[in-house]
Amino acid sequence: MSKWQIKVPGSTANLGPGFDSIGLGLSLYLTLDVTLQNEWEFVHIGEHVPTDTTVETHLIYTIAQQVAAQYNTNLKPCKVEMTSELPLARGLGSSAAAIVAGIELANLLGGLNLSIQDKLNISSQIEGHPDNATASVLGGLTISSMDEQGIVDTLHIPEVDAAFVVFIPNFELKTADSRGVLPQDFNRGYAVRASANANMLAASLIAKDYVRTGHYMEQDLFHEPFRAQLIPNYSEIRSAAKQAGAYGTALSGAGPTLISIIPTAIQEQFLTAMNAQFPEHRIVLTQADAIGSCVVAYEQKH
């Protein structure tokens, strides 16, 4: 084989109070078509891909080489044709998807035979937290913890019986900038309330109690009260979505995108109503990805 496709789902993280620990793989994808050749080449197709990068500075290339070096192997050069449904710096896991894609590329070209656990550990260590990374590796819902040695423990729920709508504004918000508005410390009583809400969110998701899930998505105390000031139409979207039948709405990752969880039965009328009220946003109906990152080999036709 000399031609493959790597497909990695984007993700949403936090889902309100699940700060840096809860992730959900979405049916929006980063796709790499990989063909062996004599030198490295990256070809970007369509929108949502970087425009100002070289091979040596390309995130996927640098991650692949970093992983190869970690395992003392060399990678065969290849042509990588890259397409993406994940807008950059919008809170839909574009960087985590690229990291997972780089790991898959190294695994493929270097013959590393990485386990799922290896991929979870490496991607989360590079990303710095396990929420988006585990969701891109596994798909579905992930609730994760990473210890001081970078070992990830993940509870994985493959199926989520609800639909999701993302409200994507026409501006970027770097995670580093959005982290800059967060307080350094919380007092004990505040932290107890915040962690209780996170516990209830996780329990509601596991129980598939989406009414409760929506409620606790809107009860975050860790980050949304501080980041909301950076997000135009934050309160208006949350209110309008609830009136239109959403279980709940929260920032997707660090923002600026918001995400609503809704009953599948109302998805078309919900989308119509939101498009009418927020025409300045790109509003996308999606669902939980059920597979996670995958690699498919293609026969070469002669």
TrEMBL record:
Cited InterPro entries: GHMP_kinase_C_dom, GHMP_kinase_C_sf, GHMP_kinase_N_dom, GHMP_knse_ATP-bd_CS, Homoserine_kinase, Ribosomal_Su5_D2-typ_SF, Ribsml_uS5_D2-typ_fold_subgr
Sorted UniProt keywords: Amino-acid biosynthesis, ATP-binding, Cytoplasm, Kinase, Nucleotide-binding, Threonine biosynthesis, Transferase
Family statement: Belongs to the GHMP kinase family. Homoserine kinase subfamily.
GHMP kinase C-terminal domain residues: 202-279
Job description of the protein: Catalyzes the ATP-dependent phosphorylation of L-homoserine to L-homoserine phosphate.
Main location: cytoplasm
Reactions catalysed: L-homoserine + ATP = O-phospho-L-homoserine + ADP + H(+)
Superkingdom: Bacteria
PROSITE patterns in alphabetical order: GHMP_KINASES_ATP
Designated name of the protein: Homoserine kinase
Binding site for ATP: 87-97
Upper lineage: Bacteria, Bacillati, Bacillota, Bacilli, Bacillales
Molecular function in Gene Ontology: homoserine kinase activity
The GHMP kinase N-terminal domain, residue ranges: 59-140
Listed EC numbers: 2.7.1.39
Biological pathway: Amino-acid biosynthesis; L-threonine biosynthesis; L-threonine from L-aspartate: step 4/5
Keyword ATP-binding tagged: yes
NCBIfam families found in the cross-reference section: thrB
Location in the cell: Cytoplasm
EC top class named in words: transferase
